[in-house]
Amino acid sequence: MSNISEDVKVRIYNASKVLQRKAGTGKVDPKKLKEAEKVIEENTVNFVPMALDYLKELEKALRAAKDNNGESADHHHKITLPIMHLKSTGTVFKYPLVSDLSDITLTFLETTKTLNDDVLAIVMAHEQLLHAILAEEMSGDGGTKGKAMKKEMASVCNRYLKKHSGSNA
Fold it and tell me: Nearest CA to 50 among 7, 95, 114, 12?
């Protein structure tokens, strides 16, 4: 679902050698994989409070960026971080729709150079959409509603990118 625009350039980062030394290389023991999958499938943690905490962080970062006209790279980082957390944890806690929408928004943010009012409005729409999903406890993929939400979020991002292609999007 990350494919927002054909114009998006993929950046590849080489793995850290330090991380490789800590984690090791090679194949993962199939027994360990099955154990990890079982933990994920049987998990009963309530994701909603955790996700709401991430959304509070996002709201705070959005307010700060709006107050300072989004000028600082620090604002970009502070907005991106809670969305990354939502993307990485949503599926683990049976909210893949949250992960998918966060993935779309993250990909969009990676392609924008500035945090102008339009970009901030798109991220605010993302935040409000996630609030609605969590309020409804819409776990899973959201069915046809979830599909429509993902399609519309990607469409909004694409419209912005087309409108601002060639400029300092």
Answer: 95
